[in-house]
Each structure stands twice: as C-alpha cells, then as structure tokens.
Amino acid sequence: MSKTIAINAGSSSLKWQLYQMPEEKVVAKGLIERIGLKDSISTVKYGDKKHQLVLDILDHVQAVKILLNDLIELGIISDFNEITGVGHRVVAGGESFKESTLVDDEALAEIEKLSELAPLHNPANAAGIRAFKEILPDITSVAVFDTAFHTTMQPATYLYPIPVKYYEDYKVRKYGAHGTSHYYVAQEAAKLLGRPLSELKLITAHIGNGVSITANYHGESVDTSMGFTPLAGPMMGTRSGDIDPAIIPYLIQQDPELKDAADVINMLNKQSGLLGVSGISSDMRDIEDGLQEQNPKAVLAYNMFIDRIKKFIGQYLAVLNGADAIVFTAGMGENGYLMRNDVIQGLSWFGIELDLTKNVFGATGDISTPESKVRVLVIPTDEELVIARDVERLKA
C-alpha cells in the first residue's frame, strides 16, 4: 500500500505526518524536538496510541533514522518500501521555484543557496531533505515552497521603493510566506461558499505564532503581508512585524547590548511582538489571562495586536476593492474567538458582522450573520496535506 510522508524540518525539530494515499488518510504523525541538544524528544501518535522517546539526537540524519525505525518497531509500516514519496516544506524558494518541484542534486543546491533569504529555515529544510535521501535514496522526493503561492504578485506589489538595482543585483523584494496555508484555506473557502475560487475575492489571515495576511483575487495571491523575510507584516508572537527601518541604526547607537544589525534583527525576531510588549508571553492565551487580571502591559500588547491585524485587513479590502470573505486560520486564527470578535468589530463600517454565538461555539465554518456583507470563515489549515498531494501529483 502506497504511503507518503510530509516533512517540516526546523533548525532543531522535525515535524512529520504519514498518509495513506490517494485516500489522504493520516496513518501516523509525530514531532522530534531538541535535535542537536541533550534530552531530545521524539513523539509518535498513531490510532489512539502515543509513543514517546527521550534520548540525545545529534542531527537530522539521526532524527530521520529514529522516525523510520519507530514506524517499523511500532508496526505502523511493515517495510520501508511502503513509503513511496516524501514531501519537504521549504520556506524560501525565491524566484527560482514558482511551484513544488522534484528534488535532484541541482534543486537541493539551489535550496541551500537560497538560505540567504531564510537563514533560520532553509538550512534545516535542506538537512531534512539530505537525511531522507541518504536513508531512502530511491523514493520520490518533492520540495514544497512557502513562497511559491505568492509568485503571482506583480512588480508594483512585490518591489520595494528603493533603487531598483537592489532587486536586479541582489533580488531584494517581497516574497511572502505561509503560502501553502493560504492556498489550502482559499480552496476550502470556495467549497464552503459553494462558489468557484476563480470568482472569489478572499482575505486569508494565517494567525499563529507567525502572522501573515494575504489578498487572494480569483485564486491568486496579489499581495501578502510578509516580505523579504517572515519578519514583515503585523505584530506576531515574538516578531515585531513592520517597523521604521531607521530604528535599527538608532538602537545600535543607543543600546550597548545591541552591537550590530544582526543583534537588532535577532531582537525583532525573537524578543518582540506579544512577548516583547507584554513581558509575559508570546502565547495569546497567556495574554488573555493578563487581560482578565487587567495587567496594563497585557492590555497594551493585545490592543496593539488587534490594531495591526485590522490595518492589514483594511489594506486588502482596498487592494481587492471589497471581499467575499475573510478567512481565519492557524492556531490563534482557529481558536482565538476574542481576537476574531475584536478584529471584526473594528471593521463593522464595511458591513461585516459576526454571529457572536457561532464565533464562540461554532469552532469552524461560517461564523458571520446572514446579513453580513462579507462572510467570516474559520477554516483549520492543513499544510501537510498540501505537501502530500503535491508529492502524489509529481509522482505520476
């Protein structure tokens, strides 16, 4: 029986999902954490069972060996030959990859070269690809790019208003991210609305620890909030989102702890956003607890977060000249009913109305009132399924 495994490799983690294809049935899924550190954790979930292992995992090759060994030892598969395809999430495809691609030595070398655009992600993605190629060299290997969905943006949108030589010589431009998620939920929104995607104008809001918002016109990304890197856009869990770039040299001059631009970028990526403003946490659930306690910094962080989300949705209502639906997805988008309520309340001038009961208790689907001029949808994302589908498509 044919199985496909979807891989999402981080710098110290490896998330995976094994599918029975073409039925798209999840056979097992797991997460390996703390790769390269002591007491690494490998968790496998299959059926109603859970298996966990704590040991030192040196690198991604060893992590893949443990993953595959668990599949055999736990009886999830009887032979490695059952796995006929592997799909790898790759964050940055730059202008080189406009769609998912079969991975050969040339493609892998280009993915590693593009690490300059995603230094936190592409090296780990490439390590995951190399690990699988070493252990299962004969199966179909596919790279699925976060940026690919956004390659339909036009120059007036993706170029920055700086001397054009920086694009021509160094490819400095908006690339976006979370494309697999935006693509998936747009497809699902069309099904939910019972209309062809080619007729719809959608604003898809991927709101997790990372946040990106996309304007989707007739099935294509025409603008998105993340930019040259995933640091741009609205405020996020630990990322600042958009700031005045002049702040960077100013902080280097003022703060002795920030020695160079790399230090400031690290602070903007890892110590800012909800965490930096609240001083409590990057997790919205903790911020909402702070709201209940009337913690002033939690209140400030929450209000800033809502403000930035509203502004980007407002921009994209202008870009699209109206929208058929606003789609919330990812961890916070799917579960944060208070956040959704406060964002949509701030857009009431556009005739957008939430059904307050459905917003809290509806979980997924259409949570707007019948009178709302724009539908508001909650759709769980499934990036791993998109990866598995692309493997099957390219395997044929």
Structural class: alpha/beta
Spatial gap, N to C terminus = 16 Å
Taken as a percent bin, the fraction of beta residues is 15-25%
Largest sheet: number of strands, sense, barrel closure: 8 strands, mixed
What's the helical proportion of residues?
Answer: 25-40%
Radius of gyration: 21 Å
Q: Encode the helix/strand succession as letters.
A: EEEEEHEEHHEHHHEEEHHHHHEHHHEEH
3D structure, described in words:
With 396 residues, the protein is of the alpha/beta class. The chain folds into two domains: 2-145, ATPase, nucleotide binding domain (Nucleotidyltransferase, domain 5), CATH 3.30.420.40; 194-383, ATPase, nucleotide binding domain (Nucleotidyltransferase, domain 5, 2-Layer Sandwich). 39% of the residues lie in helices and 21% in strands. The strands form two sheets. It has an eight-stranded mixed β-sheet, with helices on both faces. The protein has a six-stranded mixed β-sheet with strand order 11-10-9-12-14-13, with helices on both faces. Helix 1 (60-73) crosses helix 3 (122-135), helix 10 (284-292) crosses helix 11 (296-320) and helix 11 (296-320) packs across helix 13 (337-345). The protein is globular, with a radius of gyration of 21 Å. The model has no long low-confidence stretch (mean pLDDT 91).
